[in-house]
Specification:
Blueprint lengths: L1 E6 L4 E8 L1 H18 L12 H31 L4 E7 L14 E9 L12 E7 L3 H14 L2 E4 L9 E7 L5 E8 L6 H7 L7 E5 H4 L3 H8 L12 E13 L5 H8 L7 H36 L5 H11 L6 H27 L6 H18 L7 H13 L1 H23 L1 E7 L1 H7 L3
Parallel strand pairs: 5-11
Antiparallel strand pairs: 1-2, 2-4, 3-4, 6-10, 7-8, 7-10, 9-10
Length: 443
């Protein structure tokens, strides 16, 4: 077998593979012998089918399989041994000649390669980025307090429909059609403000009519109300009447000791001032995530601009089209290619920093990252101060999932690259309001 790389230019090459009969005959003979051993053909005992019949039936597919295996191994072996850095995957060359599998005995294959550009980034304190710290104001603090009140609020019985978040239970019916007792829904599910105004003031025992298709735009909500599958909605007459049997009004929790205990554990917060300190602590932690993300974006952008990498664009557009099985048109790829290109450039730059600085991620660091993610998830459901061993167990389970593990590994490497870059450049702190911070993403 002969393998040779021919450079087209600095970013493109063609890999040519020549295969002779001596490269595949032995393995092909073994494959055909195995077919003969296991073939079940009427009129012949197992293992006694004439070789000529086996060749006629199985030689071509066996040859194709064997050659494809040789080609695949040749490509991966060459790229590894020659340390050739490629982008995407090798694609069958547009100059590839047609293979005659019935008559050819020697084969030549040509594959186009998109070569990764060399990276040379030198950083200094003259390279600057801003770290935007978001100032906590009363509007932000108030929204967090309201969120706590809503999270620990409750439903109370009332006599009439009072607000836009009431919970109604009753009997749902239509003449000669569906009849459902104890049907229930919340006005929070409904965006039709006119309907909400129409039923305001309705009391227990009152009946009103409505069109479920108009009032419940979400098919999942509609199917749940009617106790049917979403696939059955199309066959339902949407006109219904509803007789109220129960009305509950959602009340936000009061800001008092009961709320403090529910939110932070009994006795951990004993005054309003301590509550505000806890709220501000949560706000700072969440806003820091936003600030860190913005810094990450800005460093990424700066490095892409500084590296000024050139890519084999025509090859990459072909590759993107190929790996997506034509799901995206050439026009779609062309339109979004700038974004694709930046992602690829960032991957190259990230690998440059990982390799040059010998950045590694340990299993302990992965567990710590997964534990942080788990704690954040639990906190979203009001589950705070869980035992450390419980968090660690959950984090370990997360890492058993291949996709989750890959995501966390990539995130950890990326965070380490950003930290490494921050040590080499100048990061200037700048305090901004939340509104001004949001405007930064509009640029």
């Amino acid at each position: 077998m002969n393998i040779a790389k021919e450079n087209v230019d600095a970013l493109n090459a063609v890999l040519k593979i020549n295969i002779e009969p001596s490269d595949y005959e032995e393995n092909l003979a073994k494959a055909l012998a195995n077919f003969r051993k296991n073939a079940k053909i009427d009129g012949f005992r197992p293992g006694k089918v004439p070789a000529g019949i086996i060749n006629k039936m199985y030689r071509k597919p066996a040859l194709v399989e064997e050659i494809n295996k040789l080609v695949s191994e040749a490509i991966s072996g060459y790229l590894k041994d020659s340390d050739t850095k490629v982008l995407g995957e090798p694609l069958s060359s547009e100059s590839q000649t047609l293979i005659d599998w019935d008559n050819d005995t020697a084969f030549e294959f040509a594959f186009d390669l998109g070569l990764a550009p060399a990276v040379d980034i030198k950083l200094s304190k003259r390279d600057k980025v801003n770290y935007y710290t978001i100032a906590i104001d009363e509007e932000i603090r108030s929204s967090y307090i309201t969120n706590y009140q809503r999270r620990f609020g409750k439903l109370t019985d009332v006599d009439t429909v009072e607000g836009k978040e009431d919970f109604l239970r009753g009997n749902l019916s239509q003449a000669g059609g569906i009849s459902i007792e104890n049907a229930a829904f919340s006005l929070r599910q409904i965006s039709n403000e006119e309907f909400k105004s129409q039923i305001a003031g309705k009391a227990k025992g009152d009946t009103f009519e409505f069109d479920v298709n108009e009032i419940f735009e979400n098919e999942t909500d509609r199917a749940a109300l009617l106790n049917i599958k979403k696939e059955e909605l199309a066959n339902i007459n949407p006109a219904f009447s509803f007789t109220i049997t129960e009305i509950k009004n959602f009340e936000n929790a009061e800001v008092n000791q009961e709320l403090f205990d529910k939110a932070f554990g009994e006795g951990n917060v004993t005054s309003y001032d301590e509550f505000i300190l806890k709220v501000d602590e949560e706000i700072r932690a969440n806003l820091a995530k936003e600030s860190d993300y913005k810094l990450h974006v800005d460093i990424r952008t700066k490095l892409i601009e500084k590296a000024d990498l050139q890519l084999p664009e025509a090859f990459l557009k072909r590759w993107i089209y190929f790996i997506n099985d034509g799901k995206f048109s050439q026009e779609d790829i062309e339109k979004d290619f700038a974004s694709y290109a930046d992602d690829i450039k960032w991957q190259i730059i990230r690998e440059f920093f990982i390799n040059n600085n010998k950045i590694e991620v340990s299993e302990e660091e992965l567990i710590a990252a997964a534990s942080e993610y788990a704690s954040y998830q639990f906190a979203q459901y009001g589950m705070r101060n869980l035992p450390e061993e419980y968090i660690t167990k959950y984090a370990t389970d997360i890492l058993q999932n291949k996709e989750e593990r890959r995501r966390i590994v990539e995130k950890k490497f990326e965070d380490k690259v950003i930290e490494n870059v921050k040590e080499s450049i100048k990061v200037e702190d700048k305090e901004v309001s939340l509104k001004d911070f949001d405007k930064l993403f509009e640029k």
